[in-house]
Amino acid sequence: MAVTIKDVAKRAKVATSTVSRVIQDSPKISEATKARVRKEMKALGYEPNYSAQSLANRVTQSIGIIMPESDVAIFQNPFFPESLRGISEWVNEHNYTLSIVTGKTSDELLSRVKLMTRTGRVDGYIVLYSKQKDSIVEYLHKEKIPYTVIGKPQQFISETTHVDNDNYQAAKDVVTYLTGLNHERIAYVGGDQEHIVNLERLRGYQDALREAGLPLPKEYVVREPFNLEDMRTLLQASPPPTAMIVSDDLVAMAVQKMLAQLGVSMPEQLSMVSFNNLMLAELMNPPLTSVDIDIFSLGYQAAKSLIEKIKDPKELTKHIIVPHRIVERKSSQTL
């Protein structure tokens, strides 16, 4: 005979409603009671019927993950699998599932988010990026759908729970690190002009140079997209940079290849520092000095904040900053 929720309640000496709340991981139930009920569930071999729970409570136990609009390139960026690993860690602990939302354009992405919402497939969303004038964030906010953002939102910032690094300060710290190595001519390469993370890092770089009284010629900043000739032009500036900050590790890998084609050796002729500290940073030749932004924690904290909001709509808005640190490797050296 199948074990029922009543059997668990009887053995744990609690009400069936308490067992139900434990299954939902309700914050209204103490950790001690949760532990006791779960112990009896395991002893009896009881497996909760999450589908039935969802129908009864009109929840899906599923959250949507909104990727940036793209066709192929986004899936080749290790930032997203690592952030998904952090998200998965929390949702698996709390018996949620994930649904990935993708689209080649922002309109297609918005259409799919609306369809997923209309058909009741998820309880809320994590937006894996932040950019200016985002129609998806506008839609989620207008419809009062629970969501969190990884990054610094530009709309409804005081009302939007988000998890981010202090990218502005991180870029300033990189400039300080390089000036500590006696570099004064520092270039910045990469980053589009749409996503907030890129704008914040560029702003931090520019402000740090100004505050240090160091030169900031316009030719020292090269934005995406760029090519080999753009890199050649940068290196032919008068005077040429002795160090380079790159917007992220993937871009740094492309830049390193261009530098090799131009006969520039790292770090003897040019020091380089990047952001994100992906695994490939260690595999580059020379290994890349990079800012570790703890991508796993960005995902983990975003999932935690969203599920807390889903369970308690009165949960206060949170602005969570995940610390960063510079991981020094052989791509940078004292001038």
TrEMBL record:
Keywords: DNA-binding, Transcription, Transcription regulation. InterPro entries: HTH_LacI, LacI/GalR-like_sensor, Lambda_DNA-bd_dom_sf, Peripla_BP_I. Residues 3-57 form the HTH lacI-type domain. The keyword Isomerase does not apply. CDD domains: HTH_LacI, PBP1_MalR-like. It holds the Pfam family Peripla_BP_3. SUPFAM superfamilies: lambda repressor-like DNA-binding domains (SSF47413), Periplasmic binding protein-like I (SSF53822). GO terms for molecular function: DNA-binding transcription factor activity; transcription cis-regulatory region binding. This is LacI family transcriptional regulator.
